[in-house]
Amino acid sequence: MRGGLIGRTARRLSHILTAPVQVVYRKVKRMVSPESFSSKVLSDVRKGINQKKKKKERTIQDYFSIGRYYVLKRFVYFVMLAAVVLPVLYLKLLHPILISHFFTKTMVINSPEMIGYSGNVELLEKDGGTMIFKGKMEKGRINGKGQLYTYEGALLYEGNFEMEAYSGEGELYYENSDTLCYKGTFLLNQYDGQGKLYDEEGNLVYKGEFKNGLYEGNGTLYFADGQEKYVGTFASGKPEGKGTLYDEEGNVAAKGAFEDGEPALKEVALTDEEGNVTYEGTVNAEGEYEGEGTLYEDGEPVYDGSFVGGEKEGTGTEFDGESNTVYEGDFVNGKKEGDGKVYAASETAAETGTEASGEGGAGISASADVNGTSGDGNINSGDGSTESGESGNTDGSSGNNTGTDGISSAGDKNEGTGMPAEGEESEPEESEPEEEEISPGEILEAKKGELLYEGSFIDGEKEGSGTDYDLEGNMLYDGEFTAGEYGGKGKLYENGRLVYEGGFTENTYEGEGRLYEGENMIYEGAFVKGRREGLGKAYDAEETLIYEGSFKSDVYEGEGRQYDPQKKIVVYEGSFIDGMYQGAGKLTDVATENLLYDGEFYRGQYSGQGKLYHTVTGNLIYDGGFLKGRYYGSGKLWDENGNLLYKGDFVNGVYYGRGARYEASTGRILEAGQFKNGILTQPELILNFTEDEEDEEDEGPLTQTEQTEVPGPE
Asked: For a FRET experiment, which of 183, 462, 631, 673 has its CA 20 to 30 Å from that of 119?
């Protein structure tokens, strides 16, 4: 029994051990069998389909019996495969990586081992000899961080390598010495970039930029004691360009331009015949101011800054002769050009709106009052003054006063209609300037050193963007300049408050802009030569719209609309001339918001053909001619209920000439003929027609020869 059990166990163990070998044998046999390729493919497909169909093991044949246990065949195959594959993967992939990164391999320089090797190495001169390199290799070449030693074992270089050359950050030492020679960046074994160079005693020789192993760019040379020897720019290892040379005591030996290592400029102190210093600084070989220097007048500096070819060039500062700064900024060819600032020179040396030196544009002081009738805010070029032109629309209306015999008398003054009373001429009123004129160049008291202008210059004048300040330090103008004057887009201020923003030309408002009073806008629209001209909108002090339409020379002219600021309704729509109603227009009664008049105007009064309406009922009460606000010429008169009262001729608002009076209730003629001053003087036969019947029979007015002569209006 025991022998049989041992035999069975041995057979099972043999089967387990040989099963994988048999499987491999069968696969190899199939691969080398003469079966066609198609048969192999079909066989593999069938096997794959069967494996897909077989979701789980179903019989004992799917397991290996190991002792008292059954082990899944697929698991056994997987374990055996892993036992073969994992060691191969480790030896081929993981082991070299681990060795190269975490272990250092020692080899002899130029040995076959170096070929294609990547990782950390120690290169020896020979077996057991001196180490000459320790660091990174890549594909058999020194590449990356490392340390290079002499054959005597002294450190020569520590830093980055690229293709066996010093490249990148590194430190180079004197041979067979621990003294640092260079610290900085390298490129192909040469100093290149920022670095520091030392002598064999360890003293700093140079700090700055290198290129191809030579000084190039900005840098500093030092004496052995650490004192600066030269500070400036280099080219090809020598001082070149702008720099300063010092002696061993720290005194400036040369300052300015250098050429080929030698100063192109020399320090001088020039004096006049009386021994007063006129210039301190550097001059070129021709004796011209060149580099940095200071000009003097009467012993006081007037300019300190850069020179080129004897002219101010670059950055500098001008003074007033009392050491007060009047300008600091850029110069080109002796003139202000670029960015700069202008300051008040002394307590009494500031000119209004100008530079203290007298250069630059004149200032502007402007205010604007646009309240429907006045037109302030015109600015004169350079004089900073304001002009005011009260044009004003005149008041008046056609308010009807019923007199004797029911005759209406038109033209009595009524506020808000834009019409004067009878006999009044509506002339534009000229107002005095609201501000005192300030002429350019007038000397005013200013704070010493107060900033007057900050911005750009071209050819000595303000040009481009800049900001003017008044004598109290408040912003006066901020915007664009052209040839020293306000030109382009800008903002004008008065006592620090914005009064205008928009276009400028030669110090005057030009183009589109906005006027302000206090915090509110009082006008927006077009300007021509400092005056409102073109389309625009006027607002009152509360920024309520009071007019929109056309302007000319600061007054309403052309088509426009006038608004009531309280009710915000249109009170007049039509034509304006010289700020007054003139031409065709419509007038609205503010109280009732009903149409009051529709017709022609002249100088703010009803003149020409028009229609007058009752402000309450809205009924037409007069249709005919007007002159100076009164009925004149042929017309018809109705009462407030629309009943005809009179048809005929008028002079100065009364019946005068041929006409007929009607009974309001029946429309029948009460009297007809020639009227004078409202009284019938030459009666005519009354046929008792109504108005419509009369129109059919009417032969028209009397001819001129038939009419009684009447005086015309005064």
From this structure: 183
